[in-house]
Amino acid sequence: MFLAKLLYLLFLCVLTQSQKDYVDISGPGLQPVEIIMPARYFFINFTHINAQTYTPELNKKLIVEIEGKSSANKHCRVWVNKLDRKDGTFIVRYKIYETCFDLSIYVHYDRKDLGKSPFKFKGPIYPDQCDCPEKEFENWFINYGCTQNHEQIIKDLKPFHNLNMKEEVQKIIQKYHQPESTSFCHYVIKENKLYRNCYGKHVGFNMFSDNVLLSLMRKVKVPDMELIINLGDWPLVHKRDKPLPVFSWCGSDETYDIVMPTYDLTESTLENMGRVTLDTLSVQSGAELVWEKREPRAVWRGRDSRAERLKLVDIARANPDLFNVSLTNFFFFRDKEAQYGPKQPHISFFKFFDFKYQINVDGTVAAYRMPYLLTGGGLVLKQNSPYYEHFYKQLTAWKHFVPVARDLSDLVDRVKWARENDEKAREIAMNAKNFGNEHLLPQHIICYHAALFWEWSKRVRSEVDIEESMTQVQQPKSACDCKFPKSHNHEDL
User: Fold this and answer.
1) How many other β-carbons are positioned within 10 Å of the β-carbon of residue 202?
2) Domain of life, per the record (predicted)?
3) How crowded is the C-beta side of 446, counted as CA atoms within 13 Å?
4) CATH class of the domain whose range is 2-130+485-492
5) What is the pLDDT of residues 66-111, one digit of tens each?
6) Which part of the chain has CATH 3.40.50.2000?
7) Between the N and C ends of the chain, which has fewer C-beta atoms within 10 Å?
């Protein structure tokens, strides 16, 4: 404790003398003209601080202020949110509610500027609700910081070339239009306007596919295209059949479905700093305890959507010193509630990180909590599974997570291994967190959709036509004025 305080006092002394040498401030939120998101964000890294020497005093003295002018020459409305990752690094999110000019971002420590603060931008800087798309997709793609090298996209689109979508759509409708069990939407993007026909009894999830397409179209003129998006959890196109181009939120080893980021991860991107509180940014500060203070047990909560989840309860009851596990709802196995209940209340997802180890077991398909587990800084114990999300193929067992057998037969041994190899377990947990920050933050999710749809548009040869029966999906109304040309210049003072 004495050594930690001494190091911290030394840090304060050195920081006062030369803030610029010891603080790194970076991230897409420092390109607010080019990179439009519901919540922009950037990172502040006190580069020589680590979890052992970090103290809450750092958080108290770090102040971020953002201000600018509206088109009426008044203060534009900006909401700033500082997230403390409790390791000497911070995430700053800010949400703009109207078009801003002369935006200034001030980063102060103990009332003194850090790094290159203040960051200044002439603008206009648009809020996410503005329908002010860039005309050139490729230029926007580069300026937004996106890349095209996605192995999953290459794999998913490999079976599809030179498609006549009029024929493909009819094949999909004929094969999968079973109103009681499947639901999907046929989308057309024409001249950057969105149209759709939906099929099936339960089509409420079209709000998620609507929203991500509209969001992308507000930012850039999307190539004309048509596509079919599956609204259910299960992928549809089995490999025993011929490939058909269906976009889904989950893939499997047995299907051809083209995988998009899940509706849950996409919603957390589009609703960032809105009605959704859990996302890959907030989870990094919501975890209250550093690794050393977390309980060395494996935690899990969830409903009874797979038999292995019942087995997980049996394993936990036999090893209470290693597990904290409960079912929160019974639907699939209601007849076994007396045996595996009583059901327990939900706990905050952030409380999962009071424990060192988090279990990821499939639900009906892949458990969509995986991105948040990775970025939370715990050790993920992941069940082997034929189901996957868009990023799973980039993960490496024993580097980003600890693999667990499909039947959970080695789960106890995996937890014991983690306890006996604490430093290695912590290293895997940090690798997972770094992976999340490099691949699963809001900018990455928007870019993945953009890369996927851009590549998809190149696979279609047929004319893109709007069917008479289609409904136009309107952009949300906003008072944005897009007549101002964007200026990409900014000043670092």
Assistant:
1) 14
2) Eukaryota
3) 30
4) mainly beta
5) 999 988 888 999 999 999 999 889 999 999 999 999 999 999 998 8
6) 283-440
7) N
